Amino acid sequence: MEKTAPKSEPKQQSKQENKPAEKTAPKSEADKKQRKPTEEELTAILKEDNLEFDESIEIDDINNMAVGKNGLLIKYIGTTEVVTIPDSIVTIGKYAFRGNESAKKIIMSDSVKTVDKFAFAHCTHLEEIVFSKNLETIGDNAFLKCTHLGEVNFPDSLRSLGKGAFGRCSSIRKVIFPSKIKRISDLCFFACRNLNRVIISNPVEVIGNAAFSECYGLKKIVISDSVTTIGESAFAWCRNLEEVTIPPTVKAVGSWAFYACQNLIDITLSLKTKDIRDDAFSGCDSVVNVIITEMEDPNAPIEAFKKGNKMIIRILKQINRKKAERYAREHNISTFFL
Known about the structure:
The chain has helices spanning 29-32, 39-47, 302-319, 321-330, and strands at 58-60, 65-67, 72-76, 82-85, 91-92, 105-108, 114-115, 128-130, 137-138, 160-161, 174-176, 183-184, 197-200, 206-207, 220-223, 229-230, 243-245, 252-253, 266-269, 275-276, 289-292. The chain is of the alpha/beta class. The strands form five sheets. It has a seven-stranded mixed beta sheet, with no helix packed on it. It has a five-stranded parallel beta sheet with strand order 12-14-16-18-20, with no helix packed on it. A three-stranded parallel beta sheet has the order 4-6-8, with no helix packed on it.
């Protein structure tokens, strides 16, 4: 909501009403710059984020930043739309930009290695961010609810993404993970409602709980054969997801992993994925095809077909008992155990 200027109070009549106004000197360029906050004002600003003022904090007048030891950006106190993080900064501290309503573009110098938790949370006008080429860590909820952030291009240096790092960033459309990420943390991209393309590449091993839940725009996902675990609710409520291929390297699919993916039609997986929780595909009412990769080989042993049919029936049973019974009858399988 845009702030409106407060209404001025009505002028009071005075005996000196006709007295000529005093002339004021024109403001210099220095005066036009944002005024440096006093220690008391800075203390109050930091207190809003449960941060404490200490004597080591310095004010960078040029970049409008409160800076601590070892290249720590403690708080941005400016109002510009394009913010450049200078090369003196190594860590963007927790809450450093939280709730900022003016910044639309952030340009990080390549000196930055860490973005701490909640650093840019609720920056609802932030549209673009240019990451440091040496960035290694993005902390928990670092970009939570940056609702206008449209694209994220991660540097190859990135090693860690925290919980909820980009949760509720409803304008992000595409995510490609860099080559050093091994774990997609819990809630990492939850409720990114316009996200429609996800490439989970090697060496990602774990897709965390609810990592992509409520990503309504997601239609297809590419999961690398480096992945071993798909967590609880990882893709729950991805209601436009149409197909999913789970590679044979995946050992476990958690509870509600694909819950309520209402438009999911094709599921492809392997007999090697043994730990599939009983409600992993619950609510996926549109599923038509459950494909077991081993059964695609006409020369596969009979045992592979028996195990494959049991797996198909078990998954269909999660979705709709009648579908499971129909499949069993069509393949001359006893329905006694259903």
